[in-house]
């Protein structure tokens, strides 16, 4: 039996960016539903919900904090668009120490899959670099991930961003 769309789900699939932002700003009571959709596998809503959440959230947003470990655990089971947006959310959040190892491993897995979208791989590498800054003992592993066989498949623009990130 098919269930009908919630008002938020309808907005996510039938509206443009500004309408989505206006809607969720006016309906703050639906942010929990937005977060739940972002971490679920309910397409086509999940990747759009993750994207909208990333757009509207604050750095270390308290509404998102309780869901960070779920996002980390779900990361490798998502498709590219949702993965990229969950990584964007995680880059804005303080990830609990007990989730950092899994996050690092998940992002390395994403980075190594050269058939994935360049933007997803780049975002995963951003997390890897961020964690390596916090844990310098990871630098040797990070260096091994910069082999040209992992960089050449990136699109031109993403490759330039990658080299800028490495310079830092």
Automatic annotation (TrEMBL):
This is HEAT repeat domain-containing protein. It comes from Brumimicrobium glaciale.
């Amino acid at each position: 039996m098919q269930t009908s769309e919630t008002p938020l789900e309808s907005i996510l699939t039938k509206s443009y960016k500004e309408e989505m932002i206006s809607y969720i700003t006016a309906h703050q009571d639906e942010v929990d539903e937005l977060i739940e959709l972002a971490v679920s596998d309910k397409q086509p809503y999940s990747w759009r919900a993750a994207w909208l959440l990333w757009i509207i959230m604050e750095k270390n947003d308290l509404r998102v904090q309780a869901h960070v470990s779920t996002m980390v655990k779900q990361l490798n089971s998502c498709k590219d668009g949702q993965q990229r947006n969950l990584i964007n959310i995680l880059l804005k959040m303080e990830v609990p120490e007990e989730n950092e190892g899994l996050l690092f491993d998940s992002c390395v897995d994403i980075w190594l899959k050269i058939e994935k979208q360049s933007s997803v791989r780049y975002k995963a590498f951003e997390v890897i670099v961020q964690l390596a800054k916090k844990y310098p003992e990871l630098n040797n592993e990070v260096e091994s991930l910069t082999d040209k066989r992992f960089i050449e498949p990136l699109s031109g623009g993403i490759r330039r961003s990658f080299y800028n990130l490495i310079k830092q």
